[in-house]
Amino acid sequence: MHRFPASTVRTRALLALCLALSVAPPALVTAQPARVPLTIERLTTGPSLTGTAPASPQWSPDSRTLAFSWNPPGEAGRTLWLVDRDGTTPRRLLPAGNTASIGAFLWTPRGDAIVFAQRGDLWRVTVPEGVVTRLTSDGAERSDVRLSPTGEWLSFLRAGDLWVQSLGGGEARRLTRIAQPPIGAIPLGTYYGNDMEIGRGTWGGAAPSHAWSPDGRTIAVHYVDRRGVPTFSMPYYLGDTAQMNVLRRGAPGQANEVRMIGLVNVASGALSFVPLPDSSSTRVVNFEWSRSGTLMIDRETDDAIDRTIHLVSPGAAPRLVWRDRGENRIYNDIHSTWSADGRTLLITGDLDDRYRLYRITPGDSVPRLLTPGPQDVAGAGVPRAASRSVDYVSTAPRPSERHVFRLDERTGRTRQLTTRAGMHAPTVSPDGRTIALISSSDTVPPELYLLDTRDGATRDGARRDGVRLAGATERRITVSQPAEFASVPWVAGTYITFPGTPGNPPLHARLLLPPNLDSTKQYPVLIGPAYSNTVRNRWAGLYGMVQQYLAIEKGYIVVQVDVRGSTGYGRAFREAFLMDWGGGDLDDLERTVQHLKTLPFVAPDRFGIWGSSYGGTLTIYSLLKKPGLFQAGVAGAAAVDPFLFGSDDVAIARRPQSHPATFERGALQYAGNLRDHLLLIHGLQDDVVPASTVIKLAEEFMRLGKDFDMAVAPAATHGWTQRPYYARYLLTKLVQHFDRHLGAGAR
Asked: pLDDT confidence of 455, banded at 50, 70, 90?
């Protein structure tokens, strides 16, 4: 992996590096699979070029065995696999004849069995024997399966209510009776959901749907009531006749769904609610029981300004233990959990310039800082009593990666555990000795690795970028890709920093250069998919493979830049996005273009931009507010009317009642500025960014005599590439648009 130090890169250094990277290394004399060209057809049709990635790693209670869902190349679907903590070879748990994909699963408290979902029912398989027992037989869909602390009872959601059932089988018992079905008849979209239910909010984040108290007598539940949310209608054309798809969908300034924490008595089924204010304008970040039976409830207002944490003891009123306020916050990456001893709280918050871990002791007014700067903590801390440590993910040593660190609670010392370049998502064993990692990079899709965290397990005292590392290196467990994958010359990202200017901080970018770049010629540049938080050394799924295709097969220089609003560069840069989309972020794009134009192998008049959702917004606003900056753009699912932003977007737009000027930033007023080549892509069942908003913009383009193109997918939602045939058709249109108006390859 080639990369720069974290310092400003001048044009001459950038040129030298790009030329060095464009020279292919000498080929090893080994047998290689025949080169298989990348095509949009191949990327969007099965079998998957990247295989089935491992997912949901879970440790046994004794920390000796890891279970995960996966299948090796050539085998369809997902099944259960096990690997020993010190092993390297995974083994299949379910019998060979059991080929249906599994869903969620969990270990029993004794670690002698795993309960899993398959074909709508629940099953139990013994470990290690692999003997399967069917627990339910009605095929009704169940989700969010949990086990009581003693392992005697299963709990799960079914049709919006909470149910319990003996682990030994028998008839399930419905504990709650609050569910009301959706008002719409077309099960599509983010906002399609029950009118009332036990479950997560529409934009629920990581909060659970329910949690057992330690004594097994009470289950805390997340209750959602959408009956007060306004209705929104979209035409659906694929039935016998056109019909209206009706959903509950709020916009900034409108009523949002009610989100409350309830307590269910397991014996009687009685449901009572924890009395907390502002339940229709506040999301639940997390709720969790301590070992002693105290319930922690972490909440944040939808506009991200206020955060509160309450504790609820049995039979007592909720007690506020901490409050935090930040007027300029945007979407907030905050988390919380109990410490290992259940006496204090560990929170992730932005109390200063960075996201950090803090400890809150109930009764103290000031949280205690645990992690150093100037890096950000990403996600929740993971405390382990046995190792007296807290593990966490950090942007250190560079914002383009996510590494796992360990805080020693005895000394306060931190050390970096992961060594492989890329992104790492950890699952820590109960004893803290071993970490399961789902890790990826620019050129390696997600795979499962195991890491021994003991200091000196393999090598002691190693350092990377000045950071002291743990002793061991990651041990790869899975290989998920077919042989065809290895035949593709995947391009590693080049990570650069453009210098800042007065009033503008440095910008961080990621480049994919065409193989064997010829510096005597000039190449077109595509910025995209544009978005915040894109400069990451990770495998980015379908869009990432499209980027590789554009660089490898079509000869585009592919660029992404972390515009303002991105995490990893401090609070001021992140919060500069508040109520300023289509403003300073466009300046960031313009500075990127200006720097790239200084390179002799960049064609100055062949720049394109594309993206979806906010990336589509960036595309449209760039073409309309900075005409000529890009010669072509493709805007997918672009949000162009703030009055129809989603209910979660109050975190970036606030509300028209309090900030009316923000809602005058719609794109329609700039339609007359269109002079570059624009392709609009939208799904007609997109309820996050309603298609009506872009259709109105198209109407204005037509009225003004502007030339543009538009492609729609009749049943696509906000993720317009989710159906393979839509992805194939629309991504082909995207590539054809740039080939036609920019021209592929060097000239």
From this structure: confident
* DSSP string covering 515-527: TT--TTS-EEEEE
Decide if 157 contacts 146 (C-beta within 8 A): no
Residue 271 CB contacts under 8 Å (≥ 6 apart), including other chains? 176, 178, 221, 262, 263, 264, 265
Q: Please state which of the ranges 18-22, 359-363, 417-421 shows the lowest mean pLDDT.
A: 18-22
Minimal CA–CA distance to 347: which of 324, 313, 316?
A: 324
* Structure confidence at residue 170 as a pLDDT band (50, 70, 90): confident
Q: In angstroms, rounded to a whole number, what is the distance separating the alpha carbons of residues 656 and 653?
A: 8
Q: Quick count: other Cβ atoms within 10 Å of Cβ 415?
A: 16
What is the distance between the alpha carbons of residues 411 and 341, in angstroms, rounded to a whole number?
Answer: 17
Of residues 685 and 20, more confidence is placed in 685
Place of tokens 């997340």: 222
- pLDDT at res. 29: 37
Which one, of 139, 54, 60, lies nearest residue 90 by Cα? 54
Cα–Cα distance measured from residue 81 to residue 51, given in angstroms and rounded to the nearest whole number: 16
Cis peptide before 128 (omega within 30 of 0): yes
Helix/strand/coil for 417: coil
Eight-class DSSP state of 500: P
Tokens representing 690 are 């309603």
Provide the pLDDT for residue 503. 83
**Nearest CA among 268, 266, 284 for reference residue 276:** 284
User: What is the rounded CA–CA span in Å between residue 239 and residue 555?
Assistant: 42
From the list 592, 586, 677, 679, the residue with the least C-alpha distance to 632 is 677
Closest among 66, 48, 65 to 57, alpha carbons compared? 66
Beta strand pairing status for 132-134 and 557-561? Answer: unpaired
Is residue 600 within 8 A of residue 730, CB to CB? The reply is no
- pLDDT tens-digit map of 25-76: 333 334 567 888 999 999 999 899 999 999 999 999 999 999 999 999 989 8
* Residue found under tokens 């409050």: 323
For residue 229, give both structure tokens. 């949310």
- What's this model's pTM, rounded to 2 decimal places? 0.94
Averaged pLDDT for residues 624-648: 97
Backbone angles phi, psi at 659, to 5 degrees: -135, 65
